């Protein structure tokens, strides 16, 4: 039994490393965008918008690597599943990055300080999403489908927080219509954070497919 | 779905070399089954058992059964000529007879006593997707055809005998990609009408053309299943190692 296709093996390793780097960049974008929102830090928000180019470039690089591996190496079985899963994960991560940018834009374009300090559940949703992302990344690195499954369970908590934040915002708007302009963007932030957790669930589904070739719908 | 061919505990030795070990596998009727595995794994030896081509090798000893339509082809009273008429074979290297295109097709039916072979020649060439390329030069030597055309001529020659099983032993390994695509397309058209078995070193070809795939290693049938399962999620690690190129 002789090992061969060494270059191909190395290219698969590089693909995994790129995906892990993309996770790190996206995690940073989510963290900074919510910090910017909490602290009303326009400079930090602008950093997130600027650094989105890094995420876009990296996700394009991953897509290109996947297409080249598919076209040139005719991958099969677990290699094929790794490439298809990484391609899908790259799309989900890029979307999460876009949502972080949207949150950052809300900070930049807010005329007044957004009343996020009274909505502790928004940072909490971001924290959970970041935990989910870290755990999904571990599951991806270690080919751990059970950990990916476990990760998706946190989505229920995010959904519950989403409802709480939404109700609280509607109450604020109902109580003082003058706050509509300030509160409406937060409804969008709330939705983005809820969607970020959904995208992480998609990532977990891709990891399960990569490891076990099972197609599961978990959120 | 019924098995057109079924091997049961088939063992084959070349002298002292135990080349096939207890092979039990069913070949589904009117579907395409691909046999894959590294060189020396026994896939070509196995396919040659299905129409008793190994009888021609002196040192071969065979135990077990190969059932064709439920009857063991290794029974003493089997008519081997009739068997090979029903279970035709296309080889790695195109091997047209040194005669005209027409005579290549007509030869088999004629020696089986068929008088008017014009319709068989035309029908077989059409079924082999060669008619349009050769209909105006049927009297020309078959050796003047390209490699891909020669291989389709050999398939037409097989079809002229009205077989119900066609065995392909690496039919495209000597062909360019366009000729290969034509053969694969032809196999697809024959699917549903003929039981086809193909030995191939090209895993992408096995994945493209076949409904079922069997993986052989060192004379053992490691795994057999639906092609889409084998190439997406094989059950056996050894199969996965082979199809992902980790050894071979």
Automatic annotation (TrEMBL), chain A:
Coiled coil: 5-32
Any matching Pfam family: PhoU
Localization per record: Cytoplasm
Domain spans labelled PhoU: 21-107, 122-207
Keyword Transport: yes
Gene Ontology CC entries for this record: cytoplasm
Record bears the keyword Transmembrane: no
UniProt record, GO biological process: intracellular phosphate ion homeostasis; negative regulation of phosphate metabolic process; phosphate ion transport
Keywords: Coiled coil, Cytoplasm, Phosphate transport, Transport
Transmembrane segments: none
Family matches, as InterPro entries: PhoU (IPR028366), PhoU-like_sf (IPR038078), PhoU_dom (IPR026022)
Stored SUPFAM superfamilies: PhoU-like (SSF109755)
Known partners and oligomeric status: Homodimer.
Function summary: Plays a role in the regulation of phosphate uptake.
Membership in a protein family: Belongs to the PhoU family.
Identification of the protein by name: Phosphate-specific transport system accessory protein PhoU
From TrEMBL, chain B:
InterPro entries: AAA+_ATPase, ABC_transporter-like_ATP-bd, ABC_transporter-like_CS, P-loop_NTPase, PstB-like
Alphabetized Pfam families for the sequence: ABC_tran
Keyword DNA-binding listed: no
GO terms under cellular component: membrane
Keywords for this protein: ATP-binding, Nucleotide-binding, Transport
Record domain ABC transporter: where: 5-243
SMART domains registered for this protein in UniProt: AAA
Keyword Secreted among record annotations: no
Recorded GO MF terms: ATP binding; ATP hydrolysis activity; phosphate transmembrane transporter activity
A GO BP annotation: phosphate ion transmembrane transport
NCBIfam families: 3a0107s01c2
Name by which UniProt lists this protein: Phosphate ABC transporter, ATP-binding protein
Classification of source organism: Archaea, Methanobacteriati, Methanobacteriota, Stenosarchaea group, Methanomicrobia
